[in-house]
Amino acid sequence: MDQKLFLNIFFCAVALPNVIGFTCYKCSYVTQTEGSRRDCIENPSALGFGSHLECNSTSYCVLQEQYDIHKKLVTSYFRSCSGKSWGNECNKDWSHVTCKASCQGNYCNERDQGKRYEAYLALHKDDHLFDSGTSFTTNIYLYMSMIFVGRYIQWKIM
Q1: 7 pLDDT band (50/70/90 cuts)?
Q2: What is the pTM of this model?
Q3: Mean pLDDT of all residues in 62-86
Q4: Cα(84)–Cα(77) distance, rounded to whole angstroms?
Q5: Burial of 131 per CB tally in 10 Å (0-12, 13-18, 19+)
């Protein structure tokens, strides 16, 4: 009987960490509304127990940062837990670099300090920063060319 009790306790002890999961940091920062919550980016452990989120063993600690190319600053930042991975990548549009990351384990989303955009921009330094393919100036030239061609055709017809 003692052997069955021991085996039951042993299997429960082995399975318990998989059921309980791990803890992630949960916080957000937006430049326009939450200037005092910059600790979400730089030091999430300073936010206290309210910034801890229990996640199950199949979840992911996640984070997302958004860097404004024109203002040259991180304008929003978010840490939490998700049922699925958000990947580990950055994407750029005409005004922002948005980086997402996922990890598993206790407080694994703590190490990031809102600087993923730096590595992305360093790798893509030859890209146009203001959009992905067509610059504002090129659009103006195309628009003006279309006007001149239209006027030329209109002049030829009359």
Answers
A1: very low
A2: 0.64
A3: 93
A4: 19
A5: middle
